[in-house]
Automatic annotation (TrEMBL):
This is Autotransporter secretion outer membrane protein TamA. The keyword Acetylation does not apply. Residues 223-269 form the POTRA domain. Its main location: membrane. Residues 299-601 form the Bacterial surface antigen (D15) domain. It is found in: Membrane. Keywords: Cell outer membrane, Membrane, Signal, Transmembrane, Transmembrane beta strand. It holds the Pfam family Omp85. The keyword Repeat does not apply. It comes from the Bacteria. InterPro entries: Bac_surfAg_D15, BamA/TamA_POTRA, D15-like.
Length: 604
């Protein structure tokens, strides 16, 4: 290269910096200021301003650079009244503004200080031509540079992902971001100690051209060593080791460490978890995996209350023990008292293993009085659960005994032993206040007269909810669900495996579970059900919004007996600190009545 052709940024700026970086150390200062450090504003020329309100110096610059100068160049505190003050100010302005403009690719600015008719000095900034990138070289050292097909392919992929191309304007922030992304990509797999060995931006200010050079030293391939646990007092180390998605000797993968950390953070036993590997080249063949944990209290009691137009006012008590029997089992219990429903439930869950699988054993008793149907249910269940990514599956066997007493109908006691399976896929941007994404659920289960069941049946159920963002705030919500129970008769089948509709999260404009099969004066579950929702939410602020909706659905003893009941209306939405609140007023088309639907829950 012609030694007279290029001048590095380190040579161009006033202060001496190491030639390896090729970038002024002004950049870290710029980043610091960009994160929130305010300085005195630079002002545009406004002749109409009164002289006593004018700043000591006015800056005149192209619009695209005004914010940069306003943010990072500090105007003098006092008026520039004499030649010495003007010379001092101009010396500082040329140095600082030249460095600022160089970060945006302007290397030949011209600065002049003139006066307006009211004698206010005006600093005119002409940035000159913007430098363009003419050449990019990305080189590699270390194990990644070994001539092998898989390494060559990875190098090609890294170079293809480099965002700065020949012909692009040069900007220091983009240059730094590109280098950070490159080293992050290299160190993601195998090379935990990868570093940028050299980076250089060679600038020819006369021709406004920049040549970029980056040399990455990947270092050696890292392999996992033993897991070193800190902060574990009450629990067996197996609790942590069994969740690791890798074993000693496996090659390093950053995503595995992050997944491991997430699993630990999701455990009720820990308040926080941090997983890391020290990038020590000397230990690359067996790098220790350090896990730092903070344990939570093993036992907890909480109380809650709320109201729902479905089941009325409620109060509840929760007790949890995350170290049940001293074996890190999770014990949970709930006593909930509602106007239309009272329930007591207990469950013991094992810890998830490396594959995200765990078992749960539960029992409960539940009493309801809804639409003149009284039920008392006793249930015991054993489930095998698994969570992989966004998909949760459950396969279980449960026995239940149900006493049903419809007003004016047949009083029965039914029992069944059910093999039940459920799959749920959840992909939403926010679990509490979703705006984009979907939830899909499929469930199938049944029992047989040949095995502790009063009736043979097979129940199927499908639900799909979808949130679609509209503009910056609004959301379109769609919901569809359908269910069918294959059986000779609905008699002998517990209500959990039949279907009713109506109320919140079903068909608004109708009372909770009021759409079903008429039996005496009561409404009981049928063997078929469909329902759906179209809802549009318009958010006036971040917390408050309004909605309009239409629901339709019905439940019956067969598909041809379904006659969709339509409800429509509007409501208020509130993103409350304790969760989403919805207050809806809906009209049921069948009877023309207006009904209020409301739900809120509070923990205390």
């Amino acid at each position: 290269m012609n030694p007279h052709f290029a001048m590095s940024l380190a040579e161009y700026f006033t202060y001496p910096y190491p030639a390896r970086t090729g970038i002024s150390v002004l950049l870290p200062a710029l980043i610091f200021f960009a994160l929130g450090s305010g300085v005195a504003e630079a002002h545009e020329v406004q002749p109409s301003e009164a002289k006593n309100n004018s700043p000591p110096v006015i800056i005149s610059a192209p619009e695209s650079l005004r914010n940069l100068l306003k943010t990072h160049f500090q105007l003098p505190a006092e008026p520039v009244v004499d030649d010495i003050a003007r010379a001092t100010f101009m010396r500082r302005a040329r140095q600082e503004i030249s460095e600022l403009l160089a970060t945006e690719g302007y290397f030949t600015p011209a600065l002049t200080l003139q006066s307006t008719p009211d004698e206010t000095p005006v600093l005119e900034v002409a940035p000159g031509p913007r430098a363009l990138i003419t050449e990019v070289r990305i080189e590699f050292k270390g194990d990644l540079a070994v001539d092998a097909p898989e390494r060559r392919a990875r190098i090609e992929s890294l170079r293809a992902a480099w965002p700065l191309r020949a012909g692009d304007p040069f900007r220091s922030p983009a240059w730094e971001e590109a280098k950070a992304a490159l080293i992050s990509s290299v160190s993601r797999d195998d090379y935990a100690a990868a570093v940028i060995d050299e980076s250089k931006a060679e600038v020819d200010p006369v021709s406004a051209r920049v040549r970029l050079l980056v040399i990455v030293d990947s270092g050696p391939v890292f392999h996992y060593g033993n897991i070193v646990i800190k902060g574990l007092n009450r629990y067996d180390p197996k609790l942590v080791n069994n969740l690791a998605p890798f074993k000693a000797g496996d090659p390093y993968r950053r995503d595995q460490l992050q997944a491991f950390q997430t699993k630990l953070q999701n455990l009720a036993q820990f308040g926080s978890a941090l997983v890391s590997v020290e990038p020590d080249v000397a230990a690359h063949q067996a790098a220790p995996v350090e896990v730092t944990l903070s344990e939570t209290q093993s036992q907890r009691i909480s109380f809650g209350g709320g109201y729902s137009s479905n089941t009325g006012a409620r109060g509840e008590i929760n007790y949890g023990n995350h170290n049940f029997l001293g074996r890190a089992l999770r014990f949970s219990s709930l006593l909930r008292l509602e106007q239309k429903r009272q329930s007591l439930a207990m469950a013991v869950d094992s810890l998830p293993n490396r594959a995200g699988r765990w078992f749960s054993l539960g029992a409960g008793i539940d009493r309801t009085t809804i639409e003149d149907l009284d039920t008392l249910r006793e249930k015991v269940a054993l489930n095998r659960n698994q969570l992989v990514g966004k998909t949760e599956t459950r396969i279980g066997i449960n026995w239940q005994r149900e006493d049903r007493d419809p007003k004016g109908g047949l009083h029965q006691t039914n029992q069944t032993l059910v093999l039940d399976g459920q799959l749920r896929y959840r992909s939403v941007d926010d679990a509490l206040f979703p705006r984009d994404g979907s939830v899909i659920e499929f469930r199938i289960g049944g029992g047989s007269k040949q095995l502790l069941s009063d009736q043979s049946f097979l129940r199927t159920y499908y639900r799909h909810q979808y949130w679609y963002p509209v503009g910056k705030r609004d959301v379109l919500f769609l919901r569809g669900e359908a269910g069918y129970t294959f059986a000779d008769s609905r008699f002998g089948i517990p209500q959990e495996y039949l279907f009713r509709a109506g109320g919140i999260q079903s068909v608004r404009g109708y009372d909770f579970q009021s759409l079903g099969v008429q039996e005496g004066q009561a409404i009981v579950g049928g063997t078929a059900m469909v329902s759906g929702t179209i809802e549009y939410n318009h958010w006036l602020t971040r917390e408050w919004g309004a909605a309009v909706f239409t629901d339709a659905g019905d439940a019956a003893d067969s598909l041809h007996r379904l006659h969709l009941a339509v409800g429509y209306g509007g409501g208020i939405r509130w993103r409350s600190p304790v969760g989403p609140l919805a207050l809806d007023l809906a009209r049921g088309q069948r009877d023309g009545k207006l009904r209020l639907h409301f739900s809120i829950a509070v923990a205390f």
